[in-house]
Write a structure and sequence with these properties.
two-stranded antiparallel ribbon; about 55% helix; Fic-like fold; globular; about 5% strand; about 200 residues
């Protein structure tokens, strides 16, 4: 029996989530960059090579945010090549699976175009920034565009979207809990959590 297409489920949830209720964010850097602190702390202790690759990708992502580069798959693929140590970062060519196979992300002739449209929405006005950052994190997670490293790609994309508008979170660890494609409350809670982390910054 084929598992339900969780990407189709996510696209429905995405349309139904009350993104406009997300909190507003205050721009300005905290005393430390939470993504870098996460890389230098728990990631480096576990795997120094992985930490260096993530830091290199983050440097690229921040530079792209500063020049306000269009957010598209090519941009993500450039970061992902750093994450994967130079390995190819092309769009997947078949269905993808996560959570020990409990979620399946289908692939159709429309998938890449749908992903491109979602990425464009991440930098378009009209939806609160916290919601756009949360939504694009989940877009990357559930489109699952790469063969490997999608969780890292999702987090890089979230911090990039925030950095484009001068928001640097003081920590990112709380963002990294398991997310499910069929959970609209969880999607809204992610946007709310971004607001909480933004308010908790220390100078």
């Amino acid at each position: 029996m084929t598992a339900t297409d969780s990407l189709t489920t996510w696209l429905r949830v995405r349309r139904e989530t009350e993104w406009h209720q997300a909190p507003g964010l205050r721009p300005g850097p905290p005393a430390s960059d939470g993504f870098r602190a996460w890389c230098e702390g728990p990631v480096r202790r576990r795997d120094p090579v992985r930490a260096e690759r993530l830091l290199s990708a983050h440097t690229l992502s921040r530079a792209d945010a500063a020049r306000r580069a269009p957010l598209d798959f090519a941009l993500l693929a450039g970061w992902q090549r750093e994450v994967l140590g130079g390995a190819e970062a092309s769009f997947r060519t078949g269905d993808a699976y996560a959570k020990a196979g409990r979620e399946r992300y289908g692939l159709t002739p429309r998938t890449q175009a749908e992903f491109a449209a979602c990425l464009r929405e991440a930098t378009a006005p009209g939806v609160p920034l916290a919601a756009r950052a949360a939504r694009v994190y989940l877009d990357v997670a559930f489109f699952h565009p790469f063969i490997d490293g999608n969780a890292r790609a999702a987090l890089l994309t979230l911090v990039h979207v925030l950095a484009r508008e001068d928001i640097i979170l003081p920590e990112v660890g709380p963002l990294q809990t398991t997310r499910y494609a069929d959970d609209p409350a969880g999607a809204a809670d992610l946007a709310a959590l971004i607001g909480v982390l933004n308010r908790s910054r220390r100078y």
